[in-house]
Design brief:
Number of strands: 4
Low-confidence stretches: 23-33, 35-44, 46-60
Shape: globular
Number of helices: 12
Radius of gyration: 19 Å
Distance between the termini: 43 Å
Helix content: 40-55%
Length: about 300
């Protein structure tokens, strides 16, 4: 691995993912499917009408009071391996710019901190105690090694690494929003955070977001082959990696079955599950649009 593998591109990609979450971007015409195969071009996301209808029905009079901000906290980097990117992040004020865009998009009842750092562990997490979202530099390394070990070229591993980290970061943003807004989640919160990330990626970031969900699905599939679930993993609040893989594919397929028909024809997604995915995805979109509606500034 290159000694300077952590570079400015990661931070830019990460911040673009975060700051674009709630400001719809233009969508490029590309195709996506698992394991780097290509699917034919097809019509755009069919669920857009669901989200648009819900948004148009929202009343601005129900907006919450804005008593907080997304803020940035910098810490001293401990590992010299990450010193250069840490310096660039601070000098370019990248986190500050991201926080500014988020503050213009979302209402907060209290401050919520964003940070990137070396953590001495492979992780990304939301802390309810500190009301903060953290992405560890070590997480990048994990994804890079995972994709390289699966036979990806160096460039492909870099690209997938960026995409997978975006999915995980938005997963943690999902936890932050659930806790900060006291959202009524009636099932497993880890699954809800995954679906929040899928919703934001697919609905708000278009094809770039689909790549992010696909990269995460690939990572889940690869990781599932390297471990046999024990009692600790079965009891954990996170779903098994195999389940997260199929759930991620279901979200993408459900967003546009015509475009992603090959998920079924090539055996990635069982047809019995695929038949339920359009309704499953539409309910996910409608739920998150309603849950976040009163907290949007637009």
């Amino acid at each position: 691995m290159r000694p300077n593998f952590i570079n400015l591109l990661f931070i830019l990609a990460l911040l673009l993912g975060v700051t674009a979450c709630f400001c719809r971007s233009d969508r490029d015409a590309i195709s996506n499917q698992p394991a780097s195969n290509q699917s034919p071009d097809a019509p755009q996301n069919q669920s857009e009408s669901v989200a648009r209808t819900v948004k148009n029905n929202e009343s601005t009079s129900n907006k919450k009071a804005d008593n907080g901000d997304f803020i940035v906290a910098h810490s001293q980097v401990e590992n010299a391996r990450y010193a250069e990117i840490d310096r660039q992040v601070k000098e370019e004020k990248l986190l500050e710019k991201a926080a500014d865009k988020l503050n213009r998009a979302l209402i907060l009842p209290h401050d919520l901190t964003l940070r990137t750092k070396d953590c001495s562990e492979t992780n990304a997490f939301y802390s309810a105690e500190n009301q903060s979202v953290t992405v560890c530099y070590e997480l990048m390394e994990h994804f890079y090694k995972t994709f390289r070990a699966n036979g990806e070229t160096e460039q492909a591993a870099y690209d997938k690494m960026f995409d997978a980290v975006q999915f995980v970061f938005l997963h943690e943003i999902g936890h932050a929003l659930i806790d900060t807004y006291k959202l009524p989640i009636t099932a497993n919160e880890e699954d809800a955070a995954d679906r929040c990330s899928s919703y934001i990626n697919i609905e708000e970031l278009g094809d770039e977001g689909v790549r992010s969900v696909l990269a995460a699905a690939d990572a889940f599939a690869i990781e599932s082959k390297t471990r046999t679930p024990d009692d600790r993993q079965l009891a954990d609040e996170h779903l098994l990696q195999e389940q997260r893989f199929y759930n991620s594919l279901c979200m993408i397929y459900g967003s546009n079955p015509e475009r992603y028909f090959n998920f079924v024809t090539e055996g990635y997604l069982p047809k019995e599950r695929a038949a339920r995915c359009p309704g499953e995805y539409a309910r996910t979109v409608e739920s998150w649009v309603k849950l976040l509606g009163e907290w949007r500034k637009d």
